[in-house]
Amino acid sequence: MGLLIDWTTKALCQEGDPDALFVQGAEQNNAKKVCRGCPVRLECLADALDNRIEFGVWGGMTERERRALLRRHADVRSWRAVFEVALEEEQRSARKGNRRRIPVDVNF
């Protein structure tokens, strides 16, 4: 089971005010809280990174955090593919009975 193609209808932020994700300063921390339990957080983040979305909180990251990640990993052409591989490795590990969860660390 990989990332969903049509993820937007499953996003937790669909239940609230969309403008709440396009805030500045300390308010961004509240916006990021919406993303924590979202079942499509990685899909959202991959979409924002792959499409170089400049504004708002996407996948639990602010525009500043996303820009920093893109600078640190300028060679990545598809964040969706990166996250797909990480999820596959996590699932493979779980099938082998390895109880240790491999976190998908988007901060590298």
Automatic annotation (TrEMBL):
Cofactor binding note: Binds 1 [4Fe-4S] cluster per subunit. Following nitrosylation of the [4Fe-4S] cluster binds 1 [4Fe-8(NO)] cluster per subunit.
Full protein name: Transcriptional regulator WhiB
Source lineage: Bacteria, Bacillati, Actinomycetota, Actinomycetes, Glycomycetales
Family to which this protein belongs: Belongs to the WhiB family.
Binding positions ([4Fe-4S] cluster): 13, 35, 38, 44
Domain 4Fe-4S Wbl-type, first and last residues per copy: 12-68
Entries under InterPro entries matching the protein: 4FE4S_WBL, Whib
Cofactor(s) needed by this chain: [4Fe-4S] cluster
Keyword set, alphabetical order: 4Fe-4S, Cytoplasm, Disulfide bond, DNA-binding, Iron, Iron-sulfur, Metal-binding, Transcription, Transcription regulation
GO biological process, one term: cell redox homeostasis
CC terms in the record's Gene Ontology section: cytoplasm
Localization in the cell: Cytoplasm
Pfam short name (any one): Whib
